[in-house]
Known about the structure:
Blueprint lengths: L4 H27 L2 H17 L1
Amino acid sequence: MPHMSPMWWMMLYLTFITCMIMLMSTIYFYFIPKGKKNKMEKVINTNNWKW
């Protein structure tokens, strides 16, 4: 049974990382105003067209 322990910890760790990433992205998109976000996307699009 001890040889199963590392895999269990790895799965737990990956789950934790995934949850943290989702939480961070949710907070990020929640706190950034939509106007600012659209403005940034517009700038990125114009830069893509320029290059």
